[in-house]
Prior knowledge:
- The structure is a single chain.
- A 5-stranded mixed beta sheet has the order 3-2-1-4-5.
- It has one domain: Nonspecific Lipid-transfer Protein, Chain A (2-Layer Sandwich), CATH 3.30.1050.
- The protein is 37% helix and 22% strand.
- It is an alpha+beta fold.
Amino acid sequence: MTFLSPEWCDAYVEAWKNNEELKKGLKKFTGNFVYRISDKEEVAPLQVNVEKGEITYHGTLNGDKIEFDMWAPFDGWRQVVQGELSVKKAMMAKGFGFKGSKIKAAMYMGSFERSINMMGTIETEF
Length: 126
């Protein structure tokens, strides 16, 4: 499956549903986030809405106010998903970006990192 394709997004949601540790870490989190590929505008961003650790919406941008926005070039995402670059190092790397409440992100950093690392469990074509 191609990264951020509709099929890939469905697989990401299934992986989330089966990740009890992730859901437990986000049981007090309600909000949304977006993953974008900054150098491939033809690839639609993935919006994920979460309520108390459970995904309530996933898909293209639906007009909701975005709480957390993350972007990186395609090769940067590849490096993170394939485990060549840690999430923390990626956030400091050139081309990676993040917009949102730093305080709230810090509160849930372990779970946010887990949700991104989980991408590596999905069979992904780059």
